[in-house]
Amino acid sequence: MKKYLLTVLTVLLPIITFAQDKGLDEKVNDAFMPIATWWEGFVLTRVPIGEYNIPFVVILLVVGATFFTVYFKFPSITKFKTAINTVRGRYVDIEKHGVDKLYNNDEALAIEDIPDTIRDESAHGEVSHFQALATAVSGTVGLGNIAGVAVAIGLGGPGATFWMIVCGLLGMSTKFVECTLGVKYRDVGPDGTVYGGPMYYLSKGLKEMGFGTFGKILGVLFAILCVGASFGGGNAFQSNQAAVQISTLLGLSGGSNGVIIGIVLAVLVGIVIIGGIKRIAKITEKIVPFMAGLYILASLIIIFANFSDIGFAFSLIIDGAFTPMAGLGGLVGVLIVGFQRAAFSNEAGAGSAAIAHSAVRTKYPASEGVVALLEPFIDTVVICTMTALVIIFFNINGTDAQSVFNYTAEHGSSVILNSNGQTINGVDLTSMAFDSVIPHFSYVLTIAIVLFAFSTMISWSYYGLQSWKYLFGKGKTADMVYKVLFLLFVVIGAAATLDAVIKFSDAMILALVFPNMIGLFFLFPKVRQEMKRYLTAISIKKEAIQDGAEDITKHM
């Protein structure tokens, strides 16, 4: 460990001068901006539908999520209880040993198995269901929940919140599909190390269906995009926002502060990521409940402080979703804003979370699929909705619904005002909304943002590393090269304002949707088979216990 950290520090120190050179920073921005603009435009290619040009990637996400929701009979509702019980460890006995070994019944393992693809189905894996969920949630819960909701409301009005919730509920089905496949097609090394994610189920799953070359191309494409996203949107942007918040909180100024903060962050991140997924999981299972609990508690305080306005706030959300002042065109616009912001927030369809979930200890892939569907629920349905309510309470400020709609009709839905008539948006709007009820909560929010950024960085380091391994092999040297590069971007992101690079990298995260969703449309029948196996195993367990067999879960 000391040797690795020394190597990292040796590489980081020479870049201090580079990172502080504002002239060089501006040159990088000027040179890279045309590329970033082209890439963003390519990823967000728009399709004309009526009066609106809708990004094709949003259409792909919505159509795919809706199809999976209907095909799997609304798993966000019907499998929610199973998901909770799985996270709680109610079925850990059958997941570890197999229902056939526990209760002498091989029915669950025999269902629709394909002889040519049967392999060792013992409970490989490195982390628990809860740890895998915490790691994946830490990669999505972040600034999208704090600033992204404010942006959505600023662009689409309160009604955008409704469509964010709908997108979150639909996204639960997509997460269920991709994370089940992530476990089913993962690789397990001789030492028990797990390698999984879309690049594996794209290559192995499509090869199984006779599309080997096509699957390999999609797998490589996904891995390249994922490495780029991990350096930018999952790293540099996060460290940059954390450094800005820390500097603001401490009242710091000057070019060297970002470098110093970046090096501190890089050392802390390095200590975690060098330990691999087990250490990442141990950290995230502690940070995620704490930061999410802190944020939810503060939101609940504000919601209950405005208890009498809750009905009014939801009427604004629902009325704004279906009867915007601009008519049908406004309805389409609000819907697009809500779905696009939710897609950025929970990343359902991007496939990134499947990398973390694939490391779970289980022999039933669908057990982690049902756990994964909780992720968009936590991220979008719960946390984003609470943020929206806080912002709406702050903006209505005693006015009535008609006044809000009249102002929106006159000035446009992109205008958000506080009681002083100031136009505010983004993280500042969220911060002021909290401060209006809980004085000085902006300081606590700063801590939350830093924790969000830290947990997102360590989660994305794992996503990027798994993709790097897929491209360049699974040796220790390749691992260390990636980790050093990742920590390099932590410092650069904190010290610089590389807007073009961040713009480019954020588009890379959305670009993951294309290879991933193509694979999901081919492979979703495999998920149905795995779900049937898992539910049958649970049913056999329940019947065995009713017949007098012992449930070993209580002894574990």
UniProtKB/TrEMBL annotation:
User: Cross-referenced InterPro entries, in alphabetical order?
Assistant: Na/Ala_symport
- How does the UniProt record describe the way this protein sits in the membrane? Multi-pass membrane protein
Domain of life according to the entry: Bacteria
UniProt family annotation: Belongs to the alanine or glycine:cation symporter (AGCS) (TC 2.A.25) family.
Q: To which species is this protein native?
A: Aquaticitalea lipolytica
**Keyword set includes Membrane:** yes
**Cellular compartment(s):** Cell membrane
Chief place of localization: membrane
The record's GO molecular-function terms, alphabetically, read: amino acid:sodium symporter activity
Cross-referenced Gene3D superfamilies, in alphabetical order? Amino acid/polyamine transporter I
List the keywords (alphabetical): Cell membrane, Membrane, Symport, Transmembrane, Transmembrane helix, Transport
Q: Does the keyword Membrane apply?
A: yes
Q: Which residues cross the membrane?
A: 52-72, 217-237, 257-275, 287-307, 313-337, 370-396, 441-463, 484-502, 508-524
> Which protein is depicted?
Alanine glycine permease
Q: Which GO terms describe its cellular component?
A: plasma membrane
